[in-house]
């Protein structure tokens, strides 16, 4: 595989801050080589418009894309806005986002209501389930809830909240060893193995930001300096199903002279549908406008293993995703720009 496209983005770890809006030459070359960015794309980016591209990975279920937008704000103001994740993540497909308290508690999920259907729950068994669930969760939902009772859904909601908070707390203590193994298909799927595969395939990134990537893999061990992290859950409307997912966000202020650079890794810790494993890398790269005002290039690079992308039907779905997914990433970058620039 060619050098990681994400490395080409994160190669922006330069010893000094650029003082114009133009992309550095090596970053420009990376976008062109890895994502087939055209001169028109670069013109759009440098004028303030978001551009995103998806690239082939050799695996039909492996979705890899990245985007960039120029925002007239400082990196410090960006990271403050990003930490207000409930507002930052707002978009048309996001139903709700809530940051977990420290430590996470079941009450953090008060606003979440699972859309469980009795036939779907009772039909769940290892190897076949409408929901992505560990075996223990399938058993709890089937045996601990009287699905003929009028309060069945309320009881199920409370069970989900308690288990979800316990799951995040277990991860906080034990790291990836505590992550779910999905049994919704005949072949069990280890979320930890999926994340390790995604991170491990980006060895070039590890060469550039080794401490942050090591912490993302070894959490809670090997925390680097100038690092903060938090957790949030989100309900989003993708396709025909609402997806409940949990994220672990890790931020590092990098030791770079001049205006601060920030690198962010966001690990998906659970998803009820569609996603098997997913990770996002973000970078706030400070520049200066021609008038000397602060600005950043906000870079987002996403990689995920997705259900339903193999076979004849999967090929059709993937073709649609190749157009829609980068467009959605660009749209979300534009939303971030609008919020930070006050439009």
Could you walk me through the main structural features you see in this protein, from its secondary elements to its overall organization?
The protein has 343 residues and is an alpha+beta fold. It is built from twelve helices and ten strands. Strands 1-2-10-9-8-7-6-3 form an eight-stranded antiparallel β-sheet, sandwiched between helices. It has a two-stranded antiparallel sheet with strand order 4-5. The radius of gyration is 21 Å and the shape is elongated.
Helix-strand layout with pairing:
Blueprint: H1 5-10, H2 25-35, H3 39-46, E1 51-55, E2 62-71, H4 75-83, H5 85-88, E3 94-99, H6 118-123, H7 135-143, H8 152-174, E4 181-182, E5 189-190, H9 191-200, H10 203-208, H11 210-218, E6 227-238, E7 241-254, E8 261-271, E9 275-288, E10 294-306, H12 311-341
Keywords:
343 residues, alpha+beta, 8-stranded antiparallel beta sheet, two-stranded antiparallel ribbon, 26% strand, elongated
Whole-number mean pLDDT: 87
Summarize the amount of helix as a percent range. Answer: 25-40%
Distance between the termini: 41 Å
Number of domains: 1
**Unreliable runs:** 10-19
In summary, what is this structure?
This protein has 343 residues and is an alpha+beta fold. Helix content is 38%, strand content 26%. The strands form two sheets. It has an eight-stranded antiparallel sheet with strand order 1-2-10-9-8-7-6-3, sandwiched between helices. It has a two-stranded antiparallel sheet with strand order 4-5.
């Amino acid at each position: 595989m060619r050098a990681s496209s994400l490395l080409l983005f994160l190669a922006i770890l330069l010893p000094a801050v650029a003082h114009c809006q133009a992309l550095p030459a090596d970053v420009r070359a990376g976008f062109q080589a890895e994502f087939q960015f055209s001169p028109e794309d670069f013109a759009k980016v440098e004028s303030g418009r978001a551009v995103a591209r998806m690239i082939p990975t050799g695996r039909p279920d492996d979705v890899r894309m990245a985007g960039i937008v120029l925002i007239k704000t400082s990196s410090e103001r960006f990271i403050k806005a990003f930490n207000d994740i409930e507002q930052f993540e707002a978009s048309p497909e996001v139903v709700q986002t809530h940051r977990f308290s420290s430590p996470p508690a079941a009450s953090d999920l008060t606003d979440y209501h699972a859309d469980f259907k009795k036939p779907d729950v009772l039909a769940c068994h290892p190897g076949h389930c409408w929901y992505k669930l560990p075996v223990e969760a399938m058993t709890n939902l089937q045996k601990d809830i009287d699905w003929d009772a009028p309060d069945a859904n309320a009881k199920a909601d409370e069970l989900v909240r308690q288990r979800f908070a316990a799951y995040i707390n277990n991860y906080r203590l034990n790291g990836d060893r505590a992550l779910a193994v999905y049994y919704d298909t005949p072949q069990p799927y280890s979320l930890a193995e999926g994340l390790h595969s995604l991170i491990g395939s980006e060895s070039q990134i590890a060469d550039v930001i080794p401490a942050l990537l090591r912490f993302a893999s070894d959490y809670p061990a090997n925390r680097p300096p100038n690092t903060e992290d938090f957790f949030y859950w989100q309900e989003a409307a993708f396709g025909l199903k609402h997806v409940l997912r949990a994220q672990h966000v890790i931020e590092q202020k990098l030791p770079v002279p001049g205006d601060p650079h920030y690198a962010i890794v966001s690990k998906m810790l659970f998803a009820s549908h569609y996603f098997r494993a997913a990770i996002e890398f973000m970078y706030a790269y400070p520049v200066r406008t021609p008038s000397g005002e602060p600005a950043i290039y906000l870079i987002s690079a996403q990689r995920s293993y997705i259900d339903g992308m193999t076979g004849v039907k999967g090929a059709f779905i993937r073709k649609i995703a190749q157009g829609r997914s980068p467009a959605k990433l660009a749209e979300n970058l534009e939303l971030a720009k609008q919020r930070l620039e006050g439009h």
